[in-house]
């Protein structure tokens, strides 16, 4: 129990460090620019929504890869070298991008059904997209910090790997929620 509390505190400190100097205005500007580019590259409102939803699908698939890689390191009690991890994650991201591309027709049909059955608005989709994107970035940043500081980060090996991932996901959700809720994206 003591080990898990130490791990939780360690994770909390890293997450606080990652967001401490974040400039909400810059975050908002980044998302507005990214969303504007995607809107301009789309032929219709539905095509724009599909593009954002496809990106969210990509982020969700990447989150699963991230979790598997993180869990593997926690279970083996061994951090990968930063360059090795970066290569591995890039390889996975390319694979995920390919899988998402292959699933496009099915995914788009599912999106269109969701637009109707869940009465999704553009605001819902834009904010969900921003949330997914920011969560993806924070997960990657957090893992980079952990593998770049292996001596300090080995404290994570003393606790339950599944619980550690649950705690990490909780802190990321908490911080991303706080950041995205302060932005005005539409």
Give a description of the structure.
This protein is mostly helical and 186 residues long. Helix content is 83%, strand content 0%. The protein is built from 8 helices and no strands. The protein has helices at residues 2-20, 24-40, 45-76, 82-102, 104-117, 122-148, 150-153, 161-180. Helix 1 runs parallel beside helix 8 (161-180), helix 3 (45-76) runs antiparallel to helix 4 and helix 3 (45-76) runs parallel beside helix 6 (122-148). It is globular and about 50 Å long.
Give the low-pLDDT segments.
none
- The 3D shape can be described as globular
| Mean pLDDT over the full residue set | 95
Number of helices: 8
**How would you characterize the largest beta sheet?**
none
Order of helices and strands: HHHHHHHH
| Estimated share of beta-strand residues | under 5%
Features:
mainly alpha; 8 helices; globular
Q: Which helices and strands occur, and which strands form pairs?
A:
Layout: H1 2-20, H2 24-40, H3 45-76, H4 82-102, H5 104-117, H6 122-148, H7 150-153, H8 161-180
Helix pairs in contact: 1-8, 2-3, 3-4, 3-5, 3-6, 6-8
Summary of the model, kept short:
With 186 residues, the chain is mainly α. It is 83% helix and 0% strand.
């Amino acid at each position: 129990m003591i080990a898990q509390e130490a791990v939780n505190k360690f994770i909390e400190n890293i997450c606080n460090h990652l967001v401490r100097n974040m400039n909400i205005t810059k975050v908002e500007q980044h998302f507005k620019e990214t969303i504007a580019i995607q809107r301009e590259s789309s032929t219709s409102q539905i095509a724009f929504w599909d593009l954002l939803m496809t990106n969210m699908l990509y982020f969700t698939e990447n989150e699963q890869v991230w979790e598997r890689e993180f869990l593997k390191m926690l279970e083996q009690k061994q951090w990968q070298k930063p360059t090795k991890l970066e290569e591995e994650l890039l390889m996975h991201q390319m694979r995920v991008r390919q899988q998402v591309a292959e699933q496009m027709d099915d995914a788009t049909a599912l999106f269109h059904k969701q637009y109707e059955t869940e009465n999704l608005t553009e605001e819902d989709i834009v904010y969900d997209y921003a949330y997914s994107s920011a969560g993806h970035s924070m997960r990657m940043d957090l893992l980079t910090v952990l593998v770049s500081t292996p001596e300090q980060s080995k404290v994570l090996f003393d606790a339950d790997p599944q619980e550690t991932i649950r705690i990490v996901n909780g802190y990321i959700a908490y911080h991303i929620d706080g950041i995205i809720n302060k932005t005005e994206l539409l």
